[in-house]
Amino acid sequence: MSKKLPEANRVRAVLTTVANQHDVCLVADRSFASEWRWLLAAISLTLCACHWGTPPGAYDAFNRADCLPALTMQDQSGRQLSLASLKGKPVLVDFIYTSCPGPCLTLTQKMARVAAQMAPALGNRFTMVSITIDPEHDGPHQLAQYAHQQGAQERGWLFLTAPPATVDRVLADFQLRRVRQADGSVAHLAGVFILGPDGRERREYDGEVVKVSTMVGDLRHILEAHS
Predict the structure, then answer these.
(1) What is d(CA 5, CA 9) in angstroms, rounded to the nearest whole number?
(2) For helices 7-21 and 34-50, what crossing angle results, to 10°?
(3) Of 3, 91, 111, 212, which is the most buried if we count CB atoms within 10 A?
(4) Alpha helix stretches (DSSP H) within 150-203
(5) What pairs with residue 32 in β-bridges?
């Protein structure tokens, strides 16, 4: 029997379908163009009123795609690896780019706090992956510099890049897409995901809202379930 989607995710799925039918741009943080924001805000307020116990910025995953396909990427050391090789352990995934003026730095610091609190398990029992959404400018050297500057050099935390077409394919598996602004900058992606050992989403987060404690708690629960 198929699992019933949580109310918040079912609403987002419906709005996504409507947006696609009417050629409305659905940006990566799952909010709509300005004419849809009032509707999304109203629904969000209603859902919050009905789900006081739900941690802010955390959602059950509704995407059932394999998010770790056999696609080759490069890490910050220049080593090539297939995303499929990461299967077998849970993976915490976010999306950044090294010239991001602020949001990416905040998200990376939040991820670093997760890494610090989960240090004994990181690399051994789960992996962290940060994928650039500006591969035209972010090679292994730029990613290594970014990781160093952010203090994100823990074993088991990979910063990945690939040709643009490969990055776009990876984003599509997460039901995301990158948008380049008129000034050449890239729209920030706030999505963070926990993938199970099979490469499929287990939890989804709004990285700008979710608390570190929520992600750590979910990771520990998933690790216990697969121990």
Answers:
(1) 6
(2) 170
(3) 111
(4) 164-173
(5) 26
pLDDT over threshold 70, residue 25: no
Interacting residues of 181 by C-beta distance below 8 A, sequence separation 6+: 187
H/E stretch holding 106: helix 103-117
178: left (phi over 0), alpha (psi -120 to 50) or beta: beta
Mean pLDDT lowest among 10-24, 156-170, 175-189, 195-209: 10-24
Strands (DSSP E) along the chain, which ranges?
58-60, 72-74, 80-82, 91-96, 127-132, 157-160, 191-195, 201-206
By the 8 A CB rule, do 11 and 47 touch? yes
**Percentages (nearest 5) of helix, strand, coil residues in the chain:** 35, 20, 45
Signed CA dihedral, 64, 170, 194, 156: sign only: positive
Distance CA(134)–CA(188), nearest Å, equals 10
Q: Residue 36: which of 57, 21, 56, 47 has the closest Cα?
A: 21
Q: CATH 3.40.30.10 occupies which residues in the chain?
A: 72-225
CATH for 72-225, options being 3.40.50.2300, 2.60.40.10, 3.40.30.10, 2.40.50.100:
3.40.30.10
Report the alpha-carbon distance of residue 20 to residue 144 in Å, rounded: 37
Q: How confident is the model at residue 53 (pLDDT cuts 50, 70, 90)?
A: low
As given in the structure block, the two tokens for residue 54 are 């739900």
